[in-house]
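Bug report (template v2)

What were you trying to do?
Predict the complex of my protein with flavin-adenine dinucleotide.

What happened?
Run completed; filing so the output is reviewed.

Input:
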Amino acid sequence: MTQAPERKENLFILTHVPSLKEGEDWNVIEEQYRDVVLTKLEAMGLEGLRDSIEFEERFTPNTIQQLYGANGGSIYGVATDRKKNGGFKIPARSQILSNLYFVGGSTHPGGGVPMVTLSGQLTADAINEDFQLPSINKKHIG
Ligand SMILES: Cc1cc2nc3c(=O)[nH]c(=O)nc-3n(C[C@H](O)[C@H](O)[C@H](O)COP(=O)(O)OP(=O)(O)OC[C@H]3O[C@@H](n4cnc5c(N)ncnc54)[C@H](O)[C@@H]3O)c2cc1C
């Protein structure tokens, strides 16, 4: 009962949307998109949802880009479908500049906290290997 007043509910709706394209502004398409989502949810059984909303907070790719500086306002990288993602995620090492490394949700192996943690470990390993530093992981294990 800490999430909403008595006899009311807190509803969190998470939809998957593409990353921002150049010139695209979610302030412009936000209302239209909201309408599509609410219509779909009402059709799926949440009847009267639209008229029951008392307070609403929205998080769009614009918000995510502004708050966290995420590329294209995306949380799982700019390509989220499996075909493009599988073997084509940004690798830990830059293929253009030496001494440049990448880490985080849009890089190999992918988004989400467990994958991002793994990405940090893989990138640290790559740096250790390139600079012949003792591996932190191996040091702890050994
Ligand atoms: C609503 C929502 C729900 C989610 N739910 C889940 C979930 O249930 N489970 C799950 O595993 N994952 C979930 N995720 C995804 C997960 O949060 C991300 O995949 C993960 O946080 C990405 O980690 P990251 O380190 O790449 O980026 P971030 O966590 O975004 O960290 C990047 C950091 O860099 C900072 N930064 C950006 N630019 C600069 C700069 N120029 N200088 C200094 N600092 C800068 C940002 O402020 C931020 O703190 C969710 C994400 C969202 C938005």
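What did the reviewer find?
The two ends are 48 Å apart (CA to CA). The chain has two domains: 1-75, 89-142.
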